[in-house]
Amino acid sequence: MGVLRGHQADYNGVPGHTLILGEKTCWSSYSAMLVRLIQQKRAIRCAEDDININREYQLTLNDWMLIPKVNRLLKPFADATLDAEHEYTCISDTIPFIKKIFYELNAINEFGINNTIKKEMIVQLKRYFRGLNPRVHFVDGETSEVHALATLLDPRYKKNGFMDKAKAEEAKGKLVSVASNIFKRSLAEGSFKLTPIPLQKVAGMQF
């Protein structure tokens, strides 16, 4: 690290930051690692020429070409993670967040190994968030009643928050059924009272 610090000082505009290592248990750490590598590229490449640096750990030209491309694929996940960590993020954001990741991934044009990585990312997204994973605790968010109804009731999203329009209609049917059952139970218990609305014309109101 001392070698890297020396080369950071040699270049004006290269921040004296430390490198970041990806952690499987730390969300977005791999994206942060790649961003830091891109930021420190000039200093790192000079530091790698030092005789005390093990050549086994040097990044090749192919690695440097791959890093920004892989980071571009990881960015939708990193952005969604930041959004999910906001103080006021709620359960109704889950389905739209997943939809946004799918949309942004599909919008990225990649070739060769990067296209392979992109396809595998989409496969894994479908496994964990579209109900294609046999493990019980991974379910399709759009058919999960609590997630689907929360999204449907959120005025920011409603049916537009769903990827699958058929599942949005299914969620709408569930919502109508739940509301109907609550209404019937309230009537039976005598806890629901209707307040008549006076039928007088209000200025600007269309009937």
UniProtKB/TrEMBL annotation:
SUPFAM superfamilies (alphabetical): Ribonuclease H-like
GO CC, one annotated term: nucleus
Protein name: Zinc finger BED domain-containing protein 4-like
Organism in which the protein naturally occurs: Oopsacas minuta
